[in-house]
Amino acid sequence: MITVFGTGTGAPLSPDPALSSAGLVVGGRRHLDAAEALLAAGAERVVLGPLTPALDVVERYTEKGQDVAVLASGDPGFFGIVRALAERFGPAALDVRPGVSSVATAFARVGLPWDDAAVVSAHGRDLRTAANVCRAYPKTAVLTGPGAGPAELGAELAHRGADRVLVVASRLGDPEHESLERVTPSEAAARDWGDAVSVVLCLDEERVLAPVRTLAGPGRPPARWALDESEFAHRDSMITKFEVRALALARLGPRPGDLVWDIGAGSGSVAVECARFGAAAVAVEKTMDGVARIRDNAAAHGVDVRVVHGAAPTVLSDLADPDAVFIGGGGRELTAIVTACARRTRRSVVVAVAAVDRVGAVRDALGAAGFVSDGVLLQSSRLAPLPGDVSRLAAANPVFLVWGVRPDTQSATSVDFLERRSS
């Protein structure tokens, strides 16, 4: 049997037969030192470093029918070693004794519930996913790691204009050295936090208390999308119509951890809808009245959208590389905008084009950047009332929707950010 003990942010380990009888004990150096008095004198100790060699030693003991104890921080089933052990040896071989996770402890220390929090691991992963989740949600816990700690996260958030407070929790569970510090992203970026950080909370302090819910997590996917134009403030019908927006959203595929640009945003309807799906959204708009309108629409729908005032492609240079881009405006600069976006986007570019003359140039620009492109002409007619309680069909202006997808991402599947494998 492999007994997994969670420790580090809760009560210290107590004497236990599973510890005293184990022929092999695996854990971090501090865990082994803390449990030394509880272990059998002849037990082999393995300091946990690279995972595979440690699992190989565990396998040698289990093949001989000898008991193994594994010591881990907090709740080892939450972004912890239980996943790797279950994959290698099967869940039936494990006896897991969870402690309190660092996330639960940190939220408890600041007096906040966390059933509505997003939780993302940056340990051994690309920090951009964690930063995008922090931008999209008002309450996020980030599990940090080398090169992806409070300083790096703070620098990313400060540079991208995120209005957040970071709570850096260090040495949780250590009664003498535990600390929680509230800092701005800029202050976090200017510090050397060492290697004792347990977790970082990223908070929009005006929205940390969400309504009571029955489903844990930062929020369910929206019940509706491709919202009617009437649900957005817009000028003179200058808004991406819901039929076009529906297909655009399907091709953009916004999801938690993504960054989506909405270029020539106008009302910001596409950016707002992407944010409702949990993506971090940036709306680029060259008119000041449009900027104000986008902010009002984002506030009305309860989402965060970063609004950048300026004309593309000039203002794009200071933005983080996106996962997907929607281009709803551009005029004479359309080809240059498509080219600039295609060079930097990771997954897809979707372009709404009213003029047939520009479709070929858009496809050429996408192809030159290595994208596989396709498109469709959307022609829709909506029901409109006539006297006598009857209806007619009112034709909307046709729109070409052209999209490009990087070949290496066409078959990629979404990975929920709450379930990414721990390294």
From TrEMBL:
CDD domains: Precorrin-6Y-MT (cd11644). Gene3D superfamilies: Cobalt-precorrin-4 Transmethylase, Domain 1, Methyltransferase, Cobalt-precorrin-4 Transmethylase, Domain 2, Vaccinia Virus protein VP39. Signal peptide: none annotated. Pfam families: TP_methylase (PF00590). Pathway: Cofactor biosynthesis; adenosylcobalamin biosynthesis. The keyword ATP-binding does not apply. GO terms for molecular function: protein methyltransferase activity. InterPro entries: 4pyrrol_Mease (IPR000878), 4pyrrol_Methylase_sf (IPR035996), 4pyrrole_Mease_sub1 (IPR014777), 4pyrrole_Mease_sub2 (IPR014776), CbiE (IPR012818), Cbl_synth_CobL (IPR006365), Cbl_synth_MTase_CbiT (IPR014008), Cobalamin_biosynth_MTase (IPR050714). Keywords: Cobalamin biosynthesis, Methyltransferase, S-adenosyl-L-methionine, Transferase. Residues 18-185 form the Tetrapyrrole methylase domain. GO terms for biological process: cobalamin biosynthetic process; methylation. This is Precorrin-6y C5,15-methyltransferase (Decarboxylating) subunit CbiE. It comes from Streptomyces sp. NBC_00119. The gene is cbiE.
